[in-house]
Amino acid sequence: MLLCKTKSETRLALSGARSAVENSLARPSSVGLVPTMGALHDGHLSLIRRAVAENDVTVVSIFVNPTQFSPSEDLGDYPQPLENDLDLCRTEGVDVVFAPSPPEMYDPDFSTWVDETSLSKGLCGASRPSHFRGVTTIVAKLFNVTSPDRAYFGQKDAQQAAVIKRFVRDLDVPVDVVVCPIVRRTDGLAMSSRNASLTPPLREEALVLSDALDEAVRLFNSGQIDTSAVKTAMTSAVSAAPHARIDYIEIVDAETLAPLETIDRPALVALAVFFADTRLIDNRILTPPKG
Ligand code: AMP
Predict the structure, then answer these.
(1) Does 74 have pLDDT greater than 80?
(2) 44 an active-site residue?
(3) Potential cystine with 67: which of 72, 134, 155, 284 (Cβ 3.0-4.6 Å)?
């Protein structure tokens, strides 16, 4: 496995890896990209395993992207256990890790952005107004550095996946976006690098996110399609945690992310909840039966 800190090293490493495959197999090679901010856990590893299984060459980027954090957010506290991340990537059969520094990715007079202007406005975008602009811009840059055939994202960040898919469609980006299922701990908590910053009691309280989603599924399965009723039940499930501070609980069209009054089409049930300074997100898809 090669660790590359610069864009030019990465391009060189990937073209070498591609040529090696093409010379030995006498066919075009495929590259899979897994963009991450590091502090890798089983959620990330599920994306990496899928990329390794589906491509000749896998590149994982590890970059805590400053432009997707607002000044008041946890950029400075974001965990960066690079050596452990590299060990995990090596074990999974990753070919190249691209771990640049912020100045490698952003010139001091950087001034060009990729800005999705519809799907990125609600849900997380309402309380993090410049977040998705930072995400789409860094993903565009990572695509330009690694020229992947496929890029792997998690359903855990459902809005991010929708925004990236729209960006790829709108700008004719020749990359297949693959969205992988949410990986959870056995108790239901969705894996997240931010879980590590919760104290054990708060981690216990954080189970209300998956409890609230389970409650939404239960109500929907028993015939409740009124989104206000489902959201009210979810709010009371979250409120069982004394330290929970709800950012949002929303039910939206799973594709357009437009708010729904009734669940009459595939719906994304999504929530974001603070525990102290840690903001956790989770979601489920509800699909009405056809006909
Ligand atoms: P991050 O390092 O948080 O930016 O996440 C990198 C990628 O891993 C994103 O596409 C996330 O959606 C995905 N991811 C994070 N947590 C999970 C999880 N629990 N299950 C599946 N994918 C995840």
Answers:
(1) no
(2) yes
(3) 134
